[in-house]
């Protein structure tokens, strides 16, 4: 009975306060497609003490468009392509301080904004068409790392180098975006049968809500 209670408590804590990614080979979490369109947004919070790591990746199934969010020496870097060439936006520093940080990517046609803890930077994409791929063929959203099966199917990645990025070690919570075309943003849950993540337990002081 005690073990059942602990399991239920763990599930509740994970659902309410986020999940842990330990950086191991199979450490990642998979979420439904982002219905980004031309004016979509995606946001989440993270906590880590590591300066480098892949936080989030999604693409158009291997053609041009992609969004990659990662920590680079404690700064948050968004690299993306909407068909007119890759763009990079970097915001923040010392974000590996063990505190929660809020990230938001917002698109408005050719403009893309990256906001971290209320501080924003913007870049403008080249080209004439700014839709994020096609919803029917876009990839799922991956958090913390990429599935190892991509190692033998790099042609399915618009940014093959993502497979070599260091995996994120830390906690992620409140992943919010529209998972249908033209839908409203909502909190996302991991794909069914996803057993690659586990919760930070309260005893480690990492399931707080500060």
UniProtKB/TrEMBL annotation:
CDD domains xref list: LamG (cd00110)
Sorted alphabetically, the keyword list is:
Signal
Q: Which domain of life is it from?
A: Eukaryota
**Matching InterPro entries, A to Z?**
ConA-like_dom_sf, Laminin_G, Neurexin-related_CASP
The record's SUPFAM superfamilies line, in alphabetical order, gives: Concanavalin A-like lectins/glucanases
Task: Provide the leader sequence positions.
Answer: 1-18
Does this entry carry the keyword Signal? Answer: yes
* GO CC terms, sorted: membrane
Laminin G domain residues are 18-207
Protein name, UniProt field? Laminin G domain-containing protein
């Amino acid at each position: 009975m005690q073990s059942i209670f602990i399991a239920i408590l763990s599930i509740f804590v994970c659902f309410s306060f986020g999940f842990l990614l330990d950086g191991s080979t199979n450490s990642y979490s998979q979420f439904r497609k982002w219905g980004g369109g031309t004016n979509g947004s995606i946001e989440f919070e993270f906590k880590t003490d590591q300066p480098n790591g892949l936080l989030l990746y999604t693409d158009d199934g291997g053609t041009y468009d992609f969004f990659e969010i990662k920590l680079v020496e404690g700064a948050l870097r968004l690299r993306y392509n909407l068909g007119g060439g890759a763009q990079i936006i970097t915001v923040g520093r010392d974000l590996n301080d063990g505190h929660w940080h809020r990230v938001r990517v917002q698109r408005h046609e050719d403009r893309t904004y990256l906001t971290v803890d209320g501080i924003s930077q913007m870049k403008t994409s080249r080209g004439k068409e700014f839709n994020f791929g096609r919803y029917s063929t876009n990839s799922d959203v991956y958090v913390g790392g990429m599935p190892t099966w991509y190692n033998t199917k790099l042609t399915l990645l618009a940014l093959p180098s993502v497979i070599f990025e260091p995996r994120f070690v830390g906690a992620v919570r409140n992943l919010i975006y529209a998972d249908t075309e033209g839908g409203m943003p909502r909190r996302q849950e991991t794909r069914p049968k996803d057993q690659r993540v586990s919760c930070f337990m309260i005893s480690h002081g990492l399931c707080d809500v500060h």
